[in-house]
Amino acid sequence: MKVLKFGGTSVGKPERMHAVAQLISGADQKLVVLSAVSGTTNALVGISDLLTKKDVAGAKQAIEKLFGPYDEFVEKLYTTAEGKAKGREVIRQHNEFISAFTQEKEFGDKHTRAILAEGELISTQLFHAYLLEQGYKSVLLPALDFMRIDEDDEPMLAYTEEKLGALLKANKDAHLIVTQGYICLNPKDEVDNLKRGGSDYTASLVGAAIRAEEIQIWTDIDGMHNNDPRIVKRTFPIQELTFDEAAELAYFGAKILHPSTILPAQKYNIPVKLLNTMQPEAKGTVIANKTTEKDIKAIAAKDAITVIKIKSTRMLLAHGFLRKVFEVFEKYKTSIDMITTSEVAVSLTIDNPKHLEAIVAELKVFGTVEVEHDQTIICIVGQFVQENNQIVRRVIDSLGEIPVRMISFGGSKNNISLLVKTHYKNAAMEELNEGLFFAEAVK
Ligand code: ADP
Ligand code: ASP
Ligand code: MG
């Protein structure tokens, strides 16, 4: 079976839902994972923030603003009076559910997470009702019946395998199996989620759990581009990526994929295709276990990086020093992305500053500690032969005068990482794009 995930813009308008129904109408059984209608999750974040701040009037206004456009959505989505009535009822129920939180005296995190789950619950119910109206054999399976995370927020794949396996067996005759991306239960049995953009991750987890033949991520662009099209002018789609290359790009900020999407698919060698709902005939990107000749494939960037520098003339070269430093990060479950060392100092970067204060306090035992915020990691991904200095030279040459704070090469054969101040990010991405992908053509 194939798993097909449709993102927010792909289900963002009634016409888009109609187009998705067309795309999935072939004879083979499919598992369809949907995101929330675009803009809905952001609106739900806004409503929860207002309720957290006890701005009940503001929250009521925001709820009205969110649901207003859904009336027209429902009118246009369905053709029959019965379908429209069903759609209106879905919207009414969810409006009522969210509005009830305006009465909540002790509004907290668990309520926020329940609100955030509403986007996918609404989109799947509307879409499933549309499929039924149009005569498709559709079944709606609640993701909360088979998606779970553990105490460390890690998805429980074995649980999904067991639960979803049983549900699929019970629904053998269904042609289309529709479910929610993003949402899950946590160890307290509360509604939780796989973090923003998490529907991609749901698709790959579900794909891995059922050993799908293929996982398709349908979005609003024709595959993974060689650079971030939101920032860089001249970008182009990449036809093939290895799992490792795609994982690096996703982890280092290519928004088209949730950072963790690749791992479950890679585990069972399931190809992942990135496809464009607006242009279904475009080739898109195939991510699989196959390398291609091309050396430099793509560039991605990850913002909100903090760099921590520990300086110690006394201890740095003593054996066991780095272990002690790493233990501090381990204690606070904070992962390190980049690291460089010199004789007297070690610099490392983190993307989660939640425990920064405590970490810095503990590191001060080893020497002086400096912290700098607003940094960006720029990651150049491809197949790099370690002895080939050409690539590093081309990277440095492309950057010209742009100051680089850290550089990491040789950690993996797929990745060269640079740390720059976020202020220089756009210029650095543009210069690298020209230098690495277009300079050859100009010569
Ligand atoms: P969806 O709602 O379908 O999940 P997203 O907005 O999460 O879609 O991801 C698609 C967007 O990712 C594109 O519209 C594009 O702006 C952005 N993006 C960032 N980097 C890349 C890249 N390297 N290749 C393609 N798209 C990218
Ligand atoms: N709706 C969620 C979000 O906007 C999940 C997703 O779209 O993948 O983050
Ligand atoms: Mg997304």
Explain what you see.
With 443 residues, this protein is of the alpha/beta class. It is 40% helix and 22% strand. The protein folds into two domains: 218 residues, Carbamate kinase (3-Layer(aba) Sandwich), CATH 3.40.1160.10; 142 residues, VC0802-like (2-Layer Sandwich), CATH 3.30.2130.10. The strands form three sheets. It has an eight-stranded mixed sheet with strand order 3-4-2-1-7-9-10-8, sandwiched between helices. A six-stranded antiparallel sheet has the order 12-13-11-14-16-15. Strands 5-6 form a two-stranded antiparallel sheet. Strand 5 and strand 6 form a beta hairpin. Helix 1 crosses helix 3, helix 2 runs antiparallel to helix 5 and helix 7 packs across helix 8. The N and C termini lie far apart (48 Å). It binds adenosine-5'-diphosphate (ADP), aspartic acid (ASP) and magnesium ion (MG). The site of adenosine-5'-diphosphate has 18 residues, from loops. The site of aspartic acid (ASP) has 12 residues, from loops.
